[in-house]
Amino acid sequence: MTKHRNSIVFWAGAAVFLIAVLSMTQIVRNEYPFFAGYVILQFIALAVAWSILGGYAGYVNFGTNAFFGVGVYTAVALFKATGAPLVVQIAAAAVVGMTLGFGVGLLTLRMRGIFFSIATIALAIIIETFVMNWRFVGGAAGIQIQRPPVMAPFDSYVKMLFFVQALLVVIAVSIARYIQNSRIGRGLQALRDDELAAECTGVPTLKLKLVACMISGALISAAGAPAAMYLQYADPSSAFNLSYSVSALAMALIGGTAHWIGPVLGAILLGSTQQLLAVTISSEVNVLVLGIMLVLFVVGAPKGIIGLLRPRYRLRAGGKP
Amino acid sequence: MTPAAAPDAPLLQVGAITKTFGGFTALDNISVDIRKGERFGLIGPNGSGKTTLINCISGALRPQTGNVIFCGEDITQLPPHLRARRGIARSFQIPRPFKSMTVLENLMVGLDFAKVDSSLPEEDVAMSILTRMGLASKASAPTGTLSQVELRKMELARAMAVRPKLLISDEAMAGLSSSEVDEVLDLLISLGEEDITIIMIEHIMQAVMRFSERVMCLDAGKIIAIGAPAEVMGNKRVQEAYLGT
Amino acid sequence: MKRRTFLGGAMAVAVLGQGSSALAQQPPIKIGMSMPQTGGLAGGGKASLLGIEIWRDDINAKGGLLGRKVELVVYDDKSSASETPAIYAKLVDVDKVDLLFAPYATVPTAPIMPFVKQRGLLLMGNFSFQVNSKVGHDMWFNNAPWGPADSWAASFLDLAQKAGGKNMALLTADQEFAQNLALTARDVAKKRNLPVVFDQVYPPNTVEFSSIIRALKAAKPDIVYVASYPPDSAGILRAVNEIGIGDDVKIFGGGMVGLQFAAVMSNLGSLLNGVVNYNTWLPEKSMYFDGTKEFFDKYTKRAVEAKVDPLGYYLAPFGYAMGQMIEAAVNSTKSLDQKGIAKYLRENEHKTIVGPIAFSADGERKETATLQAQFRGVKDKDIEQFRSPGKQVILFPEKLKTGDLISPFEAARK
Amino acid sequence: MFSMDLLLGAVVLGVLLGCFYAAVSVGLSVSFGLLDVPHVAHPAFLVLASYGVYQLNESYDIDPLLAGLAITPLFFLFGLLAYRVYYETFERRGSDAGVRGIAFFFGIAFIIEVLIILQFGVDQRSVSATYIGKSWRFGEFRIPIRQLVAFAVALALTVLLAVYLSKTFMGRAIRAVAQDEEALRLMGANPVRIKQFAFGIATAVLGIAGALLIIVAPVEPTLDRAYIGRTFCVVVMAGLGSISGTLIAAIILGVAESIVLTLFGASWAPAISFAMLLGVLAVRPQGLLGR
């Protein structure tokens, strides 16, 4: 009963959010909110997608930038070769990201988490090297992209991208929420706590990890795909920037990974703090804040913001009463 | 799909399995059949290969040679979760609860993935198992708050949630007081009365004697005695093996 | 016409009469930009910004632009392309700045080119390379002395061929700027039938160049054209010093980024000798124009406090020059109308502290003023030595030349 | 392009480079290989040590190797502290130590990077010493002396650590704690103290390794990222915790990098160590000499 009511509330909320976003694109004329909002929405999508594997299953992916970059360059390559529309670019990026997730997962998810983590760092560098040597998409020099004309009902491309990214956020959150409430979520939580015990209780751990890795990879790549059109430019060092990995990880862990709302809160908080800090402090102190917050939360508030807000999660997490 | 096992065929057949780690042979050509509904005791000194054997049965390890046949099906190469779905469940020597979950949720994992059809809602099934185990009052407690005996019971309850044909209990009484030992033992015996085959690894001899219909003793990866409890306890090599350590 | 002049004069008198109070009352003219202040480009970005700030202070001391104070609105883009679109949208839509300057370097600039083109905004470029060639924005003006795309490689190869070079080796970093240079170098070599005997691209973060230099040496080239980044430039020169490069080499260098920065130069010291490399400004006597000396006096003082490059030759004076061009254009057109300013900038030659600047249609310099200079007599661990002339002798362009190439490379190293 | 001389040169340089890689990886072989700490901040500690060496060399003109030796005790203490924090916050509490432990060290690495930038800026730094910038000639063949120095010191360091771990009482206790913590506890030793000490040693070694790093080439604050691949590749390929394996694996990596750089071009070089790492993980995760 309550589950059912929760669902209604959730979908109503999602609809209200999308309608609000859509009407904002129609009413607000100043373009800056869309530029800045796009970045924050992108971080929400990344953090939520990251936490499907990193939070629910406890496998730390340092390669968010690899999947992100793959999304960007899938879009670039496809657009340059065929002029495919944005929707197709995003779908293709999701497919490629999913395939990549499957490959890495198959290779390393049998082993302990640390091997997976290191393999994802390796992945980012190998793919970046590959893209740097790929002249068709501009190689190391990067590539400038001309946007196609904007589609109705939008009057500017950035507004459209803002809406598209909002849609991706809704998709990512609904998938995360579905997983969390389904037996997949319970299985992931079990294997995160104890892999052998989970196996012996009937949980197909490898399969679930692979599924999580594929979904997470697909969503990260999909969230990265519109970046090519947003920047109208792509270069390997920006597309594969390590800061995507640090941010996604920090936002998810700071927000808390036991519930899908955690990464959303973390991304909104850190994303807007970063936008604010970028305007006020222009030194490395800005980045330092992110690192210190990450370490403080990891050490002091293992369940993140939602753990602090909702004692239930603290209770669930706690070793001692 | 699987060929129907003959009515009197053993539930579990361990066929000549050998398991080595590097140069160390943990199990040396072990064969044993376990009947349906049997209460089977497994004893032996530390490092004799008891846990390795049940790891090979439950799927945590795979033997180098030999096979494991369950209900007439060769499961030697199957991963643990598929064995669990076929009806093999276990508890662990050192309890391994899902720490971020409540007791009830721990059971729900097994119910979720064992794929047994039931007309009752899963939560009700879980509650009935907990009631059976005397843990009903702890259903919504986090596992971190449980006492040692409650943890042991929770592990057995979680194993029961898979609705096993074969339950393997790995030293479920270690570190418990004698009244608690009796409590857990009674539980196991009552489970055995419900047509569940049980393999019990135990160091506490009275418990083994009271529980088992048949006992097997391992030493250095070999079977040194198998038979009725009193018979095995009277065996010279068994006594030596125990005194020797 | 006369009437307007009269009115203008009257207004000017009025403004002068009100003095500083008028300066305070009128809203300031805001110039917006992002600048890399953290990340890999931060060193250059901060020096460039200091140059611009010195211009702002000078102009405000003179009474501002059109009688209004000049104010800079600067955000950090973290050396990344992904930050700049939001920053420039904020500058234009929220801060409502009057004029835009581009951030230092190509990568952060590239994403804002389509934006300014679409909005029809003037953008003063800041040392980016070939960023407008595909966009074709007619209100873009780059302060860098690069000039036509191929002039860079051409000037180096001119010097090389004059010294008897017959074939070329290319060693380039796998990053955008170096790859752009490599591309033109290959083109120019092809046009001149200069065989390329060695062509290698190495990745960023390469630690050990001994292997690469050994392979390069084995190819026995006459001309070695290197396009590298600061961390690698040092590694390459070290390896060359240790492994040797052969007596055939007539000329070495060309496009090594980093050898313009004080920290790198003092670090490398005598290893620099003989290298012919590009530069933008040097303390040679041909390089002093109206205001140049005063600028560097101010810069040297403020650099210490701002913790930026103590010499500041490479970027800072061009930041100042960017301001000077805007100053001239706004004062002549007497408005902030961006189309008018662009028209003025395109049609006139501008006097700046880095010499006269004239633009061609694509917003780059009409003629290249990129220097090729040879390091000579450099000692170890001494920053101050680079302030005196003769340490980097200008070989190109002809107008600014202060010496001739010493060749072969090994001879020049002594 | 191909010639025997060039190949020979590549192999010789590769061996030198490989020994240097062994020196920078050997600490990780202890901390990750033996102690099972997911120490992704190891390369960041390494770069931090290099900056320490740089500071001493710059301000007091101390030879970089001596400077490395001088900061070794400091790094030992630093290691003790780091392990204590890690143990108290993660290992002792047990639950999901993996995830948070990795994130913790990742965060630490990130903080170290930023602090170095705040203190020293993004420019690269290098040290001066009499043996830097000269080379040893052998006919046409020249080997940079800095590489010979790095080679000799690295080899000595690795061998010394291997001997320490196999011959001394403490060394053997460290190996034992890696294999069976319970047994050690029964013997009356405190495994946590032994692990802490071992982590201290693993970090102390970085003092010298950091000196070698800045002797071989200039350092910059984000250099640690390149070394995550190299060090973990070496340690995993070696078989976790095997010191002799570390040396062999590092030489294989060094030679592979050097040959690819010399004969096939450098554009694929950064992927070498990572590709080898992925390959090892996929094919033989227990490493060359794995247990």
UniProtKB/TrEMBL annotation, chain A:
<keyword id="KW-1003">Cell membrane</keyword>
<keyword id="KW-1133">Transmembrane helix</keyword>
<feature type="transmembrane region" description="Helical">
    <location>
        <begin position="86"/>
        <end position="107"/>
    </location>
</feature>
<dbReference type="GO" id="GO:0015658">
    <property type="term" value="F:branched-chain amino acid transmembrane transporter activity"/>
</dbReference>
<feature type="transmembrane region" description="Helical">
    <location>
        <begin position="60"/>
        <end position="80"/>
    </location>
</feature>
<dbReference type="Pfam" id="PF02653">
    <property type="entry name" value="BPD_transp_2"/>
</dbReference>
<keyword id="KW-0812">Transmembrane</keyword>
<dbReference type="GO" id="GO:0005886">
    <property type="term" value="C:plasma membrane"/>
</dbReference>
<dbReference type="InterPro" id="IPR043428">
    <property type="entry name" value="LivM-like"/>
</dbReference>
<feature type="transmembrane region" description="Helical">
    <location>
        <begin position="7"/>
        <end position="28"/>
    </location>
</feature>
<feature type="transmembrane region" description="Helical">
    <location>
        <begin position="210"/>
        <end position="233"/>
    </location>
</feature>
<feature type="transmembrane region" description="Helical">
    <location>
        <begin position="114"/>
        <end position="137"/>
    </location>
</feature>
<protein>
    <submittedName>
        <fullName>Branched-chain amino acid ABC transporter permease</fullName>
    </submittedName>
</protein>
<feature type="transmembrane region" description="Helical">
    <location>
        <begin position="34"/>
        <end position="53"/>
    </location>
</feature>
<keyword id="KW-0472">Membrane</keyword>
Automatic annotation (TrEMBL), chain B:
<dbReference type="GO" id="GO:0016887">
    <property type="term" value="F:ATP hydrolysis activity"/>
</dbReference>
<comment type="function">
    <text>Involved in beta-(1--&gt;2)glucan export. Transmembrane domains (TMD) form a pore in the inner membrane and the ATP-binding domain (NBD) is responsible for energy generation.</text>
</comment>
<dbReference type="InterPro" id="IPR032823">
    <property type="entry name" value="BCA_ABC_TP_C"/>
</dbReference>
<dbReference type="InterPro" id="IPR003593">
    <property type="entry name" value="AAA+_ATPase"/>
</dbReference>
<dbReference type="InterPro" id="IPR027417">
    <property type="entry name" value="P-loop_NTPase"/>
</dbReference>
<dbReference type="InterPro" id="IPR051120">
    <property type="entry name" value="ABC_AA/LPS_Transport"/>
</dbReference>
<feature type="domain" description="ABC transporter">
    <location>
        <begin position="12"/>
        <end position="245"/>
    </location>
</feature>
<keyword id="KW-0813">Transport</keyword>
<dbReference type="InterPro" id="IPR003439">
    <property type="entry name" value="ABC_transporter-like_ATP-bd"/>
</dbReference>
<keyword id="KW-0067">ATP-binding</keyword>
<protein>
    <submittedName>
        <fullName>ABC transporter ATP-binding protein</fullName>
    </submittedName>
</protein>
<dbReference type="Pfam" id="PF00005">
    <property type="entry name" value="ABC_tran"/>
</dbReference>
<dbReference type="GO" id="GO:0005524">
    <property type="term" value="F:ATP binding"/>
</dbReference>
<dbReference type="GO" id="GO:0005886">
    <property type="term" value="C:plasma membrane"/>
</dbReference>
<dbReference type="Pfam" id="PF12399">
    <property type="entry name" value="BCA_ABC_TP_C"/>
</dbReference>
TrEMBL record, chain D:
<keyword id="KW-0813">Transport</keyword>
<keyword id="KW-1133">Transmembrane helix</keyword>
<feature type="transmembrane region" description="Helical">
    <location>
        <begin position="197"/>
        <end position="219"/>
    </location>
</feature>
<feature type="transmembrane region" description="Helical">
    <location>
        <begin position="231"/>
        <end position="253"/>
    </location>
</feature>
<keyword id="KW-1003">Cell membrane</keyword>
<keyword id="KW-0812">Transmembrane</keyword>
<feature type="transmembrane region" description="Helical">
    <location>
        <begin position="98"/>
        <end position="122"/>
    </location>
</feature>
<feature type="transmembrane region" description="Helical">
    <location>
        <begin position="143"/>
        <end position="165"/>
    </location>
</feature>
<comment type="similarity">
    <text>Belongs to the binding-protein-dependent transport system permease family. LivHM subfamily.</text>
</comment>
<protein>
    <submittedName>
        <fullName>Branched-chain amino acid ABC transporter permease</fullName>
    </submittedName>
</protein>
<keyword id="KW-0029">Amino-acid transport</keyword>
<dbReference type="InterPro" id="IPR001851">
    <property type="entry name" value="ABC_transp_permease"/>
</dbReference>
<feature type="transmembrane region" description="Helical">
    <location>
        <begin position="259"/>
        <end position="283"/>
    </location>
</feature>
<dbReference type="GO" id="GO:0005886">
    <property type="term" value="C:plasma membrane"/>
</dbReference>
<feature type="transmembrane region" description="Helical">
    <location>
        <begin position="65"/>
        <end position="86"/>
    </location>
</feature>
